[in-house]
Amino acid sequence: MNKKQCEEFLEAVLNIGKLMIQFGAEISRVEDAFLRICKAYNISKVEIHAITTLIVSTIKTEEGIISTQSVRVGRTSNNLGALEALNALSRNICNTTPKIEEIPKMTNKAIASVKMSYYNCIGYVISAGAFAVFFGGSWLDGIVSAIVGGIVYLMDKFFKVEDDSKLIWTMIMSFIAGSISILLVKLGIGHNIDKVIIGVAMLFIPSLALINGVKDMFYRNIISGLFRVIEAVLVGATIATGFGLAIATWGGIL
After folding, report:
1. Closest to 224 in 3D by CA, of 1, 27, 40, 65
2. Which of 27, 88, 136, 223 is 20 to 30 A away from residue 38, measured at CA?
3. CB atoms within 10 A of CB 130
4. pLDDT tens figures, 166-188
5. What global pTM score does this model have?
6. How many domains does the chain have?
7. Which residues constitute the domain of residue 158?
8. E-assigned strands of the chain?
């Protein structure tokens, strides 16, 4: 492996780590995948430090070539389908050790295979409706919550306000979802505004981010863990603010 190949290899593997963090992977899993890929390519020495906003790594090849690079991680979300594809990609790279120039192509192909399809819409609808009924609502409340869940999916898919700010996006979506829920109940479709709102709100709760943050702290990744826990708390606050504004604005259960 010459100097150019070493730089290209490190850039390609860092990109995989960056994508894994962006889609919600724990820091320990990202570092483990990075180390395994480097081992498959007989990298003699690997140093990596990753947090939720940055990855820095230095590698040394058997020929004595040293390369150091860093990559900035942008906004994060939770996408288990994309994580599954990236984990499968990492295992495939370790097993087959493809040419270095093929790794970026394989990464793009893996991500392109995971898109927000209308199967996700079914998940939104069933989840919102089921939670509304689970927390004591009637079947009509479940239907209203399911309808709003479908609307949330469509807004999430087509408007992409999240690209600007996750917190602002969450507040806007919560307000709109709460407003539609109140309107539908007032039109007589549902019975309990609070149960409908609970069902819809469950779609926004960042439970996976909170759990991953706690897991990161248990693995001694304190900075990343605290970052995710604080972010989850802030998202929870914006969810409450958005639905609270909808209730205060349209009367709701007040």
Report:
1. 27
2. 223
3. 16
4. 788 889 889 999 899 888 888 88
5. 0.78
6. 2
7. 118-250
8. 45-51, 54-60, 66-72
